Amino acid sequence: LPRAQQIAQQAAGGQAQIISQEIDSDFLFFNEYSFELVTADGVYCEVELDAFGNVTSIEQEGWRR
Which among 40, 51, 44 is positioned nearest to 13, based on CA atoms? Predict the structure, then answer.
């Protein structure tokens, strides 16, 4: 989980703060991760990772805090 969090933060711009996370277990040791983050400039985004730590989706929300 810590490595997945680090990958998600880097994908969102490095200084992003994780505000929520979800873990989906497909098999015994294969987890997929979804993180909602807010970037340093206040943009919200969602980053999804596959079981191997690859970013599969980055969606930027149209609103700022």
Answer: 40
Q: Distance between CA 64 and CA 31 in Å, rounded?
A: 30
Which of 12, 7, 2, 13 lies closest to 54, judged by CA? 7
Three-point CA angle 8, 61, 23, nearest 5°: 40
| Maximum Cα–Cα distance across the chain | 38
Instruction: Give whole-number Cα distances, 26 to 12, 18, 30, 64, in Å.
Output: 25, 23, 6, 33
Query: What pLDDT digit, counting tens, does each position of 18-63 carry?
Result: 999 999 987 777 899 999 999 988 899 999 999 999 999 999 876 5
